[in-house]
Metallo-beta-lactamase domain-containing protein (Klebsormidium nitens), 307 residues
Amino acid sequence: MTSSDSEGVELKHDRPTYVFSRLSPNLTKVVEYDSFTQYPFLYLIHGKDKLVLLDTGCGSGDLAGFVTSHELNPRKLPVYVVCSHSHFDHIGGNWHFSGPGGKASFCVELAFGEGRRDYTEHWKANIFGDQVKDFAITKWLADGETIQMGPEPDTTEDIRVIHTPGHTPDEIALYYAKERRLFVGDSFYQWQPIFIPKDGESLDAFKGSVSRLLTLVESEEAKDSQASPIVMCCGHVDDFLPARTALQQVEKLVSGIQDGSLPHIKNTAFGMQLDEYRLDSFSIGFMQDALAENSTCCYSGSGHTHQ
């Protein structure tokens, strides 16, 4: 991992289930070493009066106990859970925070984007979704809504919600201006295919999301040319991906798919045929399956992580 202060709990096969590293004083990354070999990245954003947890992984261990431990949460702040989308390796630990019987005492909300409630509420239909324990969604986040990180609104401290359909219809991103970080779930990462349903609509939606995020990044960077460039924190593989360069590259990749200039490669993932298109370090994969929308997953599970 990236830091000498990494710690873990719940040994599994002589390896901790959860390992954390400090990306900054206000930001912690948690990697889950799960039996599905998804190895999702979960992020903790430390605010003045709450701790925002982005995604809950596959549910391999006691995530709630881990993130509320003294080492990760010494001020005993309540936890506000946000799910980037409704695939199993991002919602598996939700039940620890908000089960069918109600929220845990330390949980403020368990939130999803409201862009496609019908899709989100049928999360069990997604691949491995039937293995996720039931949970209760307590809040739906509107596009453009902010998550207030202190007692008073603060445009620098607060987190902006951005609907980014494509990988799934309910995907969202979070922008944290204080750290110049864009949390993108499974919309972007390198070296493994970004899965998109082969339904004739999702690629167009993804293209719109890429364009929208690129506009945001360019606008924010133009406000202060002396500030550090915005980086993307992804749900797998990358926790420090230069946002502008990555978005421009993925924009070219999508255009190459749509205009037919990029050849596709026959591949497999999760036992299904995959049409994959590559451009440099990025690729997009379309499942060749009648249930493509519910068969797309988050990551093909090579176990590669950003160092």
Summary: The chain has one domain: 8-295. The first strand starts at residue 8 and ends at 12. Helices lie at 63-67, 88-91, 117-120, 202-223, 243-258, 292-295. Residues 8-295 form a domain with the Metallo-beta-lactamase; Chain A fold (CATH 3.60.15.10).
